[in-house]
Amino acid sequence: MKRDKISVVGFMGSGKTTIGLLLANFLNYFFYDLDEYIEKKEGKSIKDIFADYGEEHFRNLESFYLKELIEKHNKIVISTGGGIIKREINRKLLKEKTFVVFLDGSFEVFMNRLEGTEEKDKRPLMSLGKDELYNLWISRKPLYEEVATLKINVDSKTPYQIVREILDFY
Ligand code: S3P
Question: Which residues take part in binding substrate (predicted)?
Answer without folding.
Answer: 35, 59, 82, 140
